[in-house]
Structures are given as structure tokens and as C-alpha cells.
Amino acid sequence: MTSSAVFLALLALFPRLGRLPCVVAHAPRIVAQADAGRELGVPPGLVLVVGLLESQWGCARGSGGCWGAPAHASTPDVAGGVRETVSALDLGWSRCGTWSGALHHFRCGGCRCVVSAGYTPEDAMRLWLRVDP
């Protein structure tokens, strides 16, 4: 499935996003940035799901444009963009060997962990498989 199709499927599932005007205004950039994940072998659909769940693709208040990962490990409070998120997912895949493991690694640093707040890696996997089978 194309990144555009996955993006539209996610919008159809979440028609009442709190920051929908921002998301719509930046839709071409969001889709293009998700495609950038292909360089490292990270599926754009997975990047789009993580970006949505983390920060509504950088549009959520207080996100600073971040897609979920910090700009650098030594500055965890500085927002990173889609490249940092893609790199973090790629690192998780290389360490854990599965996209499910990569999501766990992204959320909490281990290949299998319990998430106490926000979405779970299982939530992200289910959503990804629903919109990008």
C-alpha cells in the first residue's frame, strides 16, 4: 500500500484528530517524510502509525514537531523529527529482529516490555496491520 493510502486510511479511522487542520495543511510533507523510512528499510506505514500515535505527525501541542524520538540520546528533551523516529525503529528492528520488537524497543528500550502510559506496542502493531495489511 502506498504511504498516501495508509495516511488516508489513518485519517478515516481518526476523523476527529485534535490537530486536524495542521495535519491536513502538512499532509504532503507528512507522506513524503514517511517515505524517507524506506532508505533504512522501515515500512512507511509503520512510520505513519508511530507518528500519529506519538504526536499526530508533529502537530500535537507541545510536540515541537517531533515524531516521537528525541533528536539525540544525550538530549532526550529535544524533539527529533521523522529521521530520528525512523532511525530508532531501525535500531529496534536490528536489535530485536521483528517490527513488534522494534516497537517495544522504541517505546521502552527493550525487545519486550510493559508500557505504563500511552499506547502500547501491540496497539501500534494492530493499527499498522489494519491500515497496511
The radius of gyration computed from the alpha-carbon positions, rounded to a whole number of angstroms, is 14 Å
Largest sheet: 2 strands, antiparallel
Oligomer, anyone? single chain
* Number of contiguous helices: 7
Q: In words, what does this structure look like?
A:
This protein is mainly alpha-helical. Helix content is 56%, strand content 6%. It is built from 7 helices and 2 strands. The chain has helices at 3-13, 20-25, 27-35, 44-55, 82-96, 99-108, 121-131; strands at residues 70-72, 75-79. A two-stranded antiparallel ribbon has the order 1-2. A hairpin with a 2-residue loop joins strand 1 (70-72) and strand 2. Helix 5 (82-96) packs across helix 6. The longest helix is centred in the C-terminal third of the chain and has 15 residues, at 82-96. The termini are close together. The model has no long low-confidence stretch (mean pLDDT 90).
What layout of secondary structure does this protein have?
Blueprint: H1 3-13, H2 20-25, H3 27-35, H4 44-55, E1 70-72, E2 75-79, H5 82-96, H6 99-108, H7 121-131
Antiparallel strand pairs: 1-2
Helix pairs in contact: 1-4, 3-4, 4-7, 5-6, 6-7
Write a concise synopsis of the structure shown:
This protein is mostly helical.
Quick tags:
about 130 residues; mainly alpha
